[in-house]
């Protein structure tokens, strides 16, 4: 984000050619990690809610480590193609003063990355959430029809409510991510030549909003996050008060010594 702020303030890239090649690797790599992580979380929710008996067999510590490794390896591995100029190249786009994926020999992986890196995950996430909410709706209808049954069903209902709340939070994050990043993806695919520079600049600013709004989504959607934020702020206030008291004591001691 600081590098992007410098670029917008100067309306040019002033940090050298080497950093201009490295910047898009980390930027697009992190975007890919975010998208694939949301896909992984969505499939996790799908398995937990629709196939709870298989969940513990599928999501073992070893399989989770492998999934995380695969997400990071694929996200940054695909960016090595333009970095080493195997497919396309990385450099400065003069029209939008942005360091991005450029064509080499009239080809680049930009459209492939954006279409298959966004379109396919969006389809997977949309289908998964549709199945999740359809199943939850059916389960709630059945529960209401048999509300006089054992306490086990009531316990299951409350557990389902917690799962649904978390699922809804993840869905909100996904929708906000789409709102923030979809304009950037469309701008890079549709206007590949950078004919509408202002559109690319606006899309870049909107993409960085994702980093700002996510903490608020977590705080609103999760009671655990609210408690964590409250605890953190309380500790910061307590630390600040202690520092002020220590400073006040040191000033008083200094005045006492001077008086003596």
Strand content: under 5%
Q: What is the 3D form? A: globular
The average pLDDT value, as a whole number, equals 77
Order of helical and strand elements: HHHHHEEHHHH
Q: Which percent bin holds the helix content?
A: over 70%
In the predicted model, the low-confidence regions spanning at least 5 consecutive residues are none
Membrane topology: Multi-pass membrane protein
Subcellular location: Cell membrane
Family: Belongs to the G-protein coupled receptor 1 family.
Protein name: G-protein coupled receptors family 1 profile domain-containing protein
Explain this structure.
The protein folds into two domains: 220 residues, Up-down Bundle (Rhopdopsin 7-helix transmembrane proteins), CATH 1.20.1070; 39 residues. The protein is 80% helix and 4% strand. The protein contains nine helices and two strands. It has a two-stranded antiparallel sheet. The longest helix has 40 residues. Keywords: Cell membrane, G-protein coupled receptor, Membrane, Receptor, Transducer, Transmembrane, Transmembrane helix. It is found in: Cell membrane. GO terms for molecular function: G protein-coupled receptor activity. It is a multi-pass membrane protein.
């Amino acid at each position: 984000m600081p590098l992007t702020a410098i670029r917008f303030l100067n309306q040019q890239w002033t940090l050298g050619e080497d950093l201009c090649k490295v910047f898009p690797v980390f930027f697009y790599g992190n975007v890919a990690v975010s998208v694939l992580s949301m896909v992984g979380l969505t499939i996790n929710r799908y398995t937990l809610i629709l196939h709870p008996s298989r969940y513990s067999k599928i999501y073992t510590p070893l399989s989770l480590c492998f999934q995380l490794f695969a997400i990071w390896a694929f996200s940054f591995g695909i960016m090595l193609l333009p970095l080493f100029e195997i497919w396309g190249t990385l450099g400065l786009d003069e029209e939008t003063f942005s360091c991005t994926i450029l064509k080499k020999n009239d080809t680049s992986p930009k459209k492939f990355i954006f279409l298959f890196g966004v379109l396919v995950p969006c389809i997977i996430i949309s289908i998964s959430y549709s199945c999740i909410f359809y199943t939850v709706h059916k389960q709630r209808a059945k529960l209401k029809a048999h509300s006089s049954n054992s306490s086990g069903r009531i316990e299951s209902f409350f557990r389902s409510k917690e799962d649904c709340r978390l699922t809804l939070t993840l869905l909100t994050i996904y929708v906000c991510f789409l709102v923030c990043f979809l304009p950037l993806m469309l701008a890079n695919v549709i206007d590949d030549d950078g004919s509408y520079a202002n559109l690319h600049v606006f899309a870049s600013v909107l993409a960085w909003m994702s980093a700002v709004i996510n903490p608020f989504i977590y705080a609103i959607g999760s009671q655990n996050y609210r408690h964590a934020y409250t605890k953190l702020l309380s500790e910061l206030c307590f630390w600040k008060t202690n520092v002020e008291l220590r400073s006040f004591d040191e000033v008083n001691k200094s005045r006492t010594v001077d008086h003596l």
